[in-house]
Amino acid sequence: MSNRFEGKVALVVGGANADEDRLLGFAGLSALKIARDGGKVVIGDIDDEAGTRSVQKMKSAGLTADYVHMDVTNEDDWQVAVDKTVGLHGRLDIMIMAAGIPDRGETIDSTEVDTWRRVMDVTNLGMFLGTRAVIEPMRRSSGGSIVLISSMMARVVRDGANAYATSRAGMTHFARSAAVQYGADNIRVNTVLPGWTLTPFTANAFDDEWSERLAKRVPLGRVADASDIAGPILFLASDESKYVTGSELLADGGVTAWIGPMD
Hints:
Blueprint: E1 9-13, H1 26-36, E2 40-45, H2 48-60, E3 65-69, H3 75-89, E4 94-97, H4 113-140, E5 144-149, H5 162-182, E6 187-194, H6 208-215, H7 226-237, E7 248-251
Parallel strand pairs: 1-2, 1-4, 2-3, 4-5, 5-6, 6-7
Helix pairs in contact: 1-7, 3-4, 4-5
């Protein structure tokens, strides 16, 4: 362990899967590493079972962690989570927003309006409500870091996933807007754009055969795991990136740099 996050308080949203005995999510692993490196963590998620289990294990390991139920589309839930974080620890320095849901590969003309709205609400309304909720406590802490988890789908598209890709592109532009607005407050806002990653979010789709197929499309030759994405998240959350704001950090193994196999 290091003291990389000593004195820092983080709200990690979508970070319920932080239990090392199970398949880790990259937000959950980020929460775990922040706590191990001296920080205090509040995990917010809609998966109460996974979140509670993860926090209990973190506490049993001597780490400072708490859990709060959150629906990111609910303004009151954001306020409760921020109030709990500040009430427990007196400040808020880091917010990582990783909540999201996919659409199911529909074409534009077959996508239901309710599906489109739900994807946009979880991703875009969620990031808006979250950023708005943490600005004032971060000002009181003399600054902070907001890390929004987008996707390489903000840069490229595939058949289907229209709502998902559009919502993730929206995150990157929102981050630039927020970075400009709150730079004077020493509040940095950045996005991480993960590529294909094996997490609880994707496990049902990523069987061995599919992972091997995807790996052939990745210049680094493999699908990512949680640690591959947590590293960029933690860099942007930490003071190591204190002069980085309004940026997009691609963590896709080179997928979006490559036209793909020619045979």
